[in-house]
Structure formats: structure tokens, C-alpha cells
Amino acid sequence: MLVGRRRTVLAALVVAMLAAVGVVGALVLPSPGDAHADQVRAVAGSLRCPSCMGEDVADSASPLAESMRLVVAEQLAAGRTPGEVREWFARAYGDEVLLDPPRRGLGWLLWAAPLAVVALAVPLLWRRPGRRAAPAAALAGVAVLAGWWLVTDVRGSVGPAGGTAAAASAEAGSGAAAASDGAGPGELGALTVLQAAVQEQPGRTELREALASRLEEAGRTAEAAEQRAAVVRLRPLDADARYRYAAALVRDGSADQATEVLEQTLEVRTRHAPTLALLGTLLRDTDPGRSAELMGQYAQVREEGS
Amino acid sequence: MTAGMVAGTVLLALALGAALVAAAAWALAARAAGRGGTGQETGTGTHPPPGRRRGAGAGAARAGTVALVACGALVAAAVTLLQVALVRQDVAWPYVERVAGSDMPLYYRVTAMWSALEGSLLLWLLALTGVALLVLARSQVPGRGTDAAALGVLGALVAVFAVVTLVGSPFTAGSGGGRPSPLLRDHVAMGLHPPLLYAGFAALAVPYALSVAALVGRRTNRPPAASPPAPGPPRAGSGTALYAQVRAWTLGAWCALTAGIGLGAWWSYAVLGWGGYWAWDPVENASLLPWLAATALLHAVGPRTRAGRWQAWTVALAGTGFVLVVLAQLVTRSGTVESVHAFTASTLGPLLAGVLAAVLLPWLVLLLRRRPTASATRSPGPSRWAGLRAGALEAQRALLVVVLAIVAVGTLLPTALLLLTGERVSVGPPWYQRTLAPFALLLLVLMTAAPWLARRRTAPPVLPAALAAAAVCCAVGLLVRDPWLAVVAGLAAAVAVGGLPAGRGRNDLRTCGSWLAHVGVALAAVAVLAGSHGAVREAVLPPGGTVAAQGTTVTLVEITRRQAHGHEVAEAELLLGRDGELAGTVRPQLRWYPDDAAMLAGPAIRTGPVDDVYVTLLDADPEAGTATVRLAVTPLTGWLWTGGVLAVVGGLLAVVPLRRLPPGRRRRRPAEQRGREGRPSTPAHPASVTAGAGRTASHAPSPSPAHPGRRPRTPAPRALGPLLATTLAGTALAGCAAPQDEPRPAPPLAGTDLDGTPRDVADLRGSVVLVSAWASWCAPCRDEMPVIAQARDDLGPHGLEVLGINVRDLPGSARDFAAETGMDWPSVVDLEGTKAVGWGMRGLPVTYLVDRDGRVVDQHPGPVTEEWVEAVVEPEVHR
């Protein structure tokens, strides 16, 4: 029932409101905040790798880049802002390590050049405003561009600094190292994934070994020992697998079973060094004579090997 | 030199001769046609010049045709000769041995032709020649004015590049120079990327040639439309044949360039393993510049976007496009600009610079002296919107040119500064992203308004597009909480909904093509912004170890090693888990090519509609069973490639209708156009900002009596020149701080030495200290030990101390090394290399000289030499 003009106005209002809700909501609602590793990556991405051609420190695989990433992580964790970290690197390596040239020396030219391009281009190319407006248009273009840079600079320096403080306190609280995003939910997820994979391919010993390592890390030694037992069943002649099974049993507290397994291993392979050492250690209290003999054999095998 | 190589060189020389003959013949034909009468180029062709001139013109045209065809055949024969040698692996040829040495499959042997500098020059020559032949085939009446001149220009271009190819010929190339990287033998896409790019570059030569021909023949004017065009779809044949040809060739070039650049970016992402697709590398930028020029040209000459001074824009941009192509060749082949992609530095640099001058200067001179007249076409529609529409279209072209100029500045200015002052300035992705972001946003806004800016039968309704934009903006803003992504996503939705073509027919096919291309670009823009919301994590994994990022985990199962032909492969098998569920197995690889001493990473990528999982194997230790793995989860990467494909498809759709046009349609309105032969009267500045050449606008006001409707030219904004000069001078003065020559205080260096004793360089304050960085895995470090020991013995009594830094080493190996080389000074252990980073270490060995006040006064990369000790260390000790 709304006629022509009113309908247009109403439609325009609806559109404007939706858009405003979206943009303002994005600005105002709390964003998840950068994880520490993301900040390290962001700062490292703005540094050029000095020993490679054309790569930044975040992507490069060279050892120097790894060391530089560690330095960036240390400094950010200590509470410095990204700008301060970049300045530190500029002092150590020279301005050319910064991928975004600073506002000093020749870097000024690279800041001024886009402004100059806009100042030249607006009156030359865009003749619409008419005769007198050309210098004003040029100045307006330059002002808009410079203003944009200032705004994004300010937002950029405020955000990560706040995030750094929060991340640093969180890390200090948990005492975890910087790159331990895999802890917690990631760990559980990985376990489930490994279990699903083992179910799908029960004959693959590598999967079971990986699952067993993971379970041991998570402290579930009994399940780890089960998995290692399965590996031994699948590969009865593999002395290393038997040894790992025995080690898992020891961790789980069943030293007697471990001893049995180790004795069986020695039947399979008499001069397997790790088995000799572990069995010798286990039998030290109960059967010292045998233990000494085993350790002697172990020493011999090691000498022959080196 | 084998017979084949001699034959190839002879073929190239003959082709050069044929090209010269063709150029001369077509120039004669153009002159004859030009003298024969006016109104030739309207496409009628039914009024050939009379009498003797006609005979001379036709004879020259025939000679030109024969010469051009002969040139094409000769170049094709040379290429065939080289290909045959490659396929047969004729290692008597040094070039073949260098490029296709070991046992490579047939496909790679064929594409190896353009994997090195000389062969790629030959491929470029083939592309240019092919384009010239195509123009010859498509010109309906040989001998017609503009076409003849254009063919003459093309012949001249072929001749110039034939000279370049003769200098850098694969037939006479030596076996020196580097082998092409194994990257180029690794993937199918590398065979396609250069030919696509070269096809696009060569196709841009035709608008250049047409622009030169039009300027020479002064035929750039389309008379102003005296009345609004008849209702109905704008006829594809309307406008002069010149502009229609420019449009067709530019569109073809644009499609090829978009496909080539997109393929290069995809290859960089999928094959190289660093996880990105655009590094803002100088060679990449050099191929982007012609693409930007072609896009601007498309929007100036496309019949539905003609507004304002579009003829001037078209002529200027058409020439600029090819000039930028030659600039790209210069950047890629001369080695003056440092880049990963550049071919080895060669003697071609000055020659290519000469070619650039030869291509640029004559055209520029022509442009300035015979500028197209400024006849503003009156746009249809109510005049209230007409000015706005014209303004928006002009703004769009201006924005594209500004982006072009900024990319050119970023690419060339660091090299220029390096050559002039010797100082290095790095310009990388952060600078480009920050500087180009506002312009890209403005361009996106204008692209959203495209359906209403382009001349159409009926403007589509605004409401659905606006509603879609607002709804998507709201949803994305609230879900993702990134305001920029919300805005861009809203604009993309508006592009998709607003431009939906309705109805059928040939011109609606064009509308559909333009809509598809715009949707493709919008999708790519959304993908680029969304990419910054990804997460990257890296870790060293034992079997069973996991790296996790944003709910996605990869768990190491095992590492295997095997031999493939020509290289060794270490492959890691990882289980991929998404939100706790097993989602498959990924197998990233590390490949070692012993012949080239190159280690390449082959990433494993899982593409999904929502995000991409990118797993790279950075390091593998099969004995210990550990692997260094990087996991990157990036949203919407697949949309980027989809967008690229859509853009190319859209461009192809827009090309197709023109070819089906029957010749009769083009000859409409002969009367209108013949009577209005424009003369260049008052100058109008073609607005082209070629790289680095900025000119202040200055022209005298003088109204032309022949066209009374025109307004007098505006007087120069005189303030602009001084304004610019003062801005630059001011920034230079304010910014150019004197380089800091004072020595900086020594960075901290404290830790334990190899025996466990704490050491600190600050304890040695008061003596001159030589800080020497070494490691047991660094071979040259052995050579410098005796020199340092000698220096320590000679200068120790005078106050010289030596302190080492043992960087990224194993304690056992380090102690062995120290014992072997007789190192009897202490060294601070730096297991992770972080202390050395503070000293600005770039490689080993490096030695720093610290004075008695604890400041670093000198730094010597490489092994210490006695000369350095005498020249620098002794004076400092004795000071």
C-alpha cells in the first residue's frame, strides 16, 4: 500500500540499516584476538630474509630465518610492540631488512611517491571537476590517501599491542612455550584421528606405533602398551618393535611382563643392543650375575658398532 | 657448430630480412593508400585510390603480404628445427645439452625450449610473427590505409625483435650460463605459462600498431554523436573499424594475460611450497602492468563504456600497453632488477633498453604532436546522470592508471635508487598492500556500479542488488567480525545480483560475459581478503606428533625415502583431522636434485569450498623419524582460482559475438563519418602516465572554429608544478637524514662457553675484542682459524681479545672442531642462533670488531684475511 517514493525511502532505510549493523557490529564486537603465533607470523612476514632472495622471514625455511622467527617470538612474548621489534631488526641488519620502508632516509621517497602519483594523476586524468577545482582535487586526493595511512597505522599499532599483553599473560600463566598450540584440544583431536585411522587400517604397524607414542605422551600407558603388543603380533621378527613394547610395559609398571618380552626378543635376535641394556637394567636387583653378563655383551656390541 | 645450428641462424637472418622488407612494403602501401583519398578506414574499402597510385599501393601490399608470410614461415622453420633437436636430444648443440640434458619425458623436452633465455626469445619472436600473420589474414581489404600502416608497424616490431633474437640466439648460445631450475621440469603448468603470457603480450602489439597507424593517418576521431543513438541494442558494428579492432585484440590479449597470470599464481601456490600466490616480485609486477593497461583500455574502448574523452584514452592506453610489454621483457631478461624469476644477467640489457626507447619514443612523439581531438561524446539518458556517469567512467580509468603507476614505482624505484645512490631499499608485500588498498576498494565500488554505468537497453533495478549487498555485509560482519571483509563481501554480492543478465541475443551474450568477468574479479577480491584470516603453525614432529591450527590437525605417521629418476624423494605421511574426525592422508614431499644441488618442497594441498589445508614438509630426518611440518589453513583460497577462471570465461564470451558479425553491418553510417574528418586543432592531453614520466598539464586555450560547440580548454593549473616540486623537495629534505656513520653499541652476547663457563662480551670492555662467529658445519671457518690465532698472538699483549660465537651447532661436533683447529679462545654457545641475529649475522663465517668502549666499529663477512687484520684491527688496537 506504500506508494512509489515512500517505498523507495523505506527500502533505502532497510538497506542502510542492514549494512550499518554489519559494519558496526564487526567493529564493535570483540574479535577473537590474535594468537601469539599469528602475531609472530605477522611481524616475521614484514621482514625480509637476509640470506635468501625474495622471501620473507615467515615463509623462508632457511636456518637464519628460523633463528629470526625465534627472536621475534621472544621479543613479542617479552611485551614489545611489533613496531619496536621491527626497529630492533632495522638496527641490527639495516633498513633493507624491512619490507615496508621506514620514514627515514631514502624510504621517504617510497612514502612520497604514491602521494606524488595521486597529486599528478587526479588533475591530469580526471577532468570532470572543471577548471578551478584541479589543484583542490589533487590536494584532496593526497589528503585522503595520507589520512588512510595514518588511520590504518594507528589501528595496526593498537591492536596487536593489546593482543600481545593478553597473550603474554596467558602464556606466563600456563607456563607453556610459544608454539604449543597443539596442546589441549588439538591433542584430543589427534588421538581420535589416530584411533580412527587404526580402525580403518588395522594392519598398518606405523599407524599403531604413532598412536602408541601419542598415548604415551598423553599418559595412557596401558592403552599404549596394548597397541605396541598388536605391533609385535603383526611383526613378530622385528626386534625394535619388541623392545618398544617392553619399554611401554615398563612405563606402565609391569616390569615382569617386560622381562619376559625381552627374553623372547633375545631368542629372536641375540645381539640387539637396546634389549640387552634394558634387560640388564631390569635384572640388576633380581639376578645380578645375569645382569652383569648382559651389560658386558651390550658394551661389546656398542664397541663393535662404533 | 653443427649444420643444424648454422641452418637455424641463417633462417633467423633471413626472417630478419623478410621482416624489414615487409615493414618497408607496408609502409609504402600505407602511404599510397593515404594519398589516394579520404574516408578510407571506415571499412568500406570500396573506394580504392585511383590510377597509378592504386597500382603502386596494391603492388606494395602484395609484396608486403609475401614478405610477411615468408617471415612467418622462416621463424616457424627455425622453431621446428630447435624442437626437433630437443626431442631427439641432440646434445651436440650446447643449448640442448644445457636445457634438456638428462632423461626427461617428451612433454618436458618440448617445453624446455622456453625454459632458458635464448629459447624464450625465439618463442616471443614466434608469437609476434603469428600475431602479424593473424592481422594480415583478418584484414579484409589489403591496402586499406590503417591496416597497411598497422602491418608496417608490426613488421618493424618483428624485425627489431629478430635482431634481439639473433644476438641471443639458441642456435649460437654457449653451454655456459645456469641450468634451468628443476622447478621447470616438475610440473605441467610450467609449459603453459610462458606461451599464454607471450600470446597476451604479442596480442597487445596490435593495439599499439593501430594506435601508431591512427596517429600517423590522423584518423582517431569519431564524430560526436549528434543525436542520441537509436533505441535498441547498440550495434556491434557501430564506431569505426579501428576501435572495433582495438577492442577485439585487447580482449583477446586480456583473456590470455589473465589466464597466464592466474596460472602463474596457481603454480606458485600449488607447486613452490611457500604457501603464497603473489610475492610482488619485480618480474611478476612487470607482467601485471600490461594487464592493468589492457583492463583500462577495455573499459575505454568497449562500446558501452565510451564516455568522456575516450578516443584520447584509447590511443594513449593502446600504445602504453605494448610499451609496458617491452618494459617487462627488459626487467625479466636484463637482470638489472633483482628477482627470483629473472634470467641470468646477460648482455641483452642495453640492447633491450634500446628496443624500449625505439618503441616508446616515436610513439610518444607522434602522440604529442598529433593528439586526438577532444570531442566529448554526449551520453544518452537524462543529463542529470550523464555527467555523473561520464565522471565515474573517467574515474575508473584514472584509478587503473594510478594503480599501474604505483606498481611501476614500487618495482622500478628501488633499482633506480640502488643504481643512483648505492643504498638498498626493500619494497615488499606490506608496502604494496597498504598503498594499493584504498584504490582497489574504490575500483571495486565502481565495478559494483558497472550495470548502471554501462550503456544498456534498460538499467537493471537497484533494489535486489542493494538488498543482497546489505544482507551479506550484515551476515559476514556479525559472523567474522572483520569490517573490511564485510564491506567487500557485500560489494561482491551486489556485483553478482545486480549484473544478472536478462534476455537473449548477441549483445546479451556480451553483457553476460562482462557480468561473469566482474563476478570473477569480485570473488577473487573476497578470497584475497579472507586469506588473512587463516592460521599457520609449524613444529618438529616425532611419529605420532601433531600440529594443529584452527581445529585442523595433522599427525605424523612415518617418513619414507625413495629414488625417482634424477632425484631423491623424502615423503612424510600425515593423517589429516578436521574437528577430531579423520579426513584423509596427506603426503608432502621434499625432493633433492643432486645435479642442481637444489632442494624443492612439494606441498600437499586439500582444497575445499570453505578453506584450503596446506601442508609443507620443511625438513625430514628419516633415521630419527622426525619431520618439520608446516600446516596452513587458509579460508576461501579456492574462490581465487574460481574467480580467475570465471574472468577468463567471461572475457572469451565477450569476444565471440564480434567474429560472427557479417561484414555488411560494419558499413553503416558511411555518410555521417565521411563528412566529419577531424583535424587536430586544439590539443587535448591524452592521459597516460607511463612509468616515471609525469608531465604537468599545460596547454593554451584556443577554441576551434570548426567545432563551435566545444568549450575552450582550461588554462593550466599553474600551481600544480611548483606544488609538486615543493612537496617532493620538502619530503626529501625532511626525510633524508644523513646515514648514520657512528658505530653502534655492541649487542649483548652472554652465555656459557663449550666447557660450561659463563662468558660475556661486556666483561671484556677495555680491550679491543674480535667477535668471531663459527660453526663446525661451516667449511670456510677452518681457513680463518690460523689467521685469527696469529692476530691474537701478535696483538694480544697490546689489548686484543678474541671471543667466539658457536652458532646452531652440536656441542660434541663443536668441541671436536675446536680441538682440531687449535682454537684456544672461549666461544659462547648459541644453540638456536638468536644471539647471532642480534649481531646482524647473515651467514658464516663473520667477524665483528668491537672497540674498547664496547661499540661495533667494523664487520667482516667471510673468512678473516691478514689484510683486514693489518688494515683495520691493528690501527684500532694501537689507537
From TrEMBL, chain A:
Statement: the UniProt record of this protein carries the keyword Magnesium: no
All copies of domain CcmH/CycL/Ccl2/NrfF N-terminal, residue ranges: 21-135
CDD domains: CcmH_N (cd16378)
Coiled coil: 208-235
Gene3D superfamilies with a match to the protein in the record: Cytochrome C biogenesis protein, Tetratricopeptide repeat domain
Record keywords, A-Z: Coiled coil, Heme, Iron, Membrane, Metal-binding, Signal, Transmembrane, Transmembrane helix
InterPro entries per the UniProt record, alphabetical: C-type_cytochrome_biogenesis (IPR051263), CcmH/CycL/Ccl2/NrfF_N (IPR005616), CcmH/CycL/NrfF/Ccl2_sf (IPR038297), TPR-like_helical_dom_sf (IPR011990)
Keyword Acetylation: no
GO CC annotations, alphabetized: plasma membrane
Chain segments annotated as transmembrane: 108-126, 133-151
MF-aspect GO terms: metal ion binding
Any Pfam family the entry gives: CcmH
Family under the similarity heading: Belongs to the CcmH/CycL/Ccl2/NrfF family.
Its biological purpose: Possible subunit of a heme lyase.
PANTHER family: CYTOCHROME C-TYPE BIOGENESIS PROTEIN CCMH, CYTOCHROME C-TYPE BIOGENESIS PROTEIN CYCH
The protein's name in its UniProt record: Cytochrome c-type biogenesis protein
Organism of provenance: Xylanimonas oleitrophica
High-level lineage: Bacteria, Bacillati, Actinomycetota, Actinomycetes, Micrococcales
UniProtKB/TrEMBL annotation, chain B:
Transmembrane helix as UniProt keyword: yes
Feature: compositional bias, Basic and acidic residues: 670-679
Record Pfam families: AhpC-TSA, CcmF_C, Cytochrom_C_asm
GO MF terms, alphabetically ordered: antioxidant activity; heme binding; heme transmembrane transporter activity; oxidoreductase activity
SUPFAM superfamilies with a match to the protein in the record: MFS general substrate transporter, Thioredoxin-like
Alphabetic keyword roster: Cytochrome c-type biogenesis, Membrane, Transmembrane, Transmembrane helix
Transmembrane segments: 6-29, 63-86, 106-136, 148-176, 196-216, 248-268, 288-305, 312-331, 351-368, 398-419, 431-454, 461-478, 484-503, 515-536, 639-658
Positions of region (Disordered): 35-57, 664-719, 735-758
Keyword Zinc-finger: no
Residue stretches making up the Thioredoxin domain: 740-878
GO cellular component labels: membrane
InterPro entries to which the protein is assigned, alphabetical: AhpC/TSA, CcmF_C, Cyt_c_assembly, Cyt_c_biogenesis, MFS_trans_sf, Thioredoxin-like_sf, Thioredoxin_domain
Protein family membership: Belongs to the CcmF/CycK/Ccl1/NrfE/CcsA family.
UniProt protein name: Thioredoxin domain-containing protein
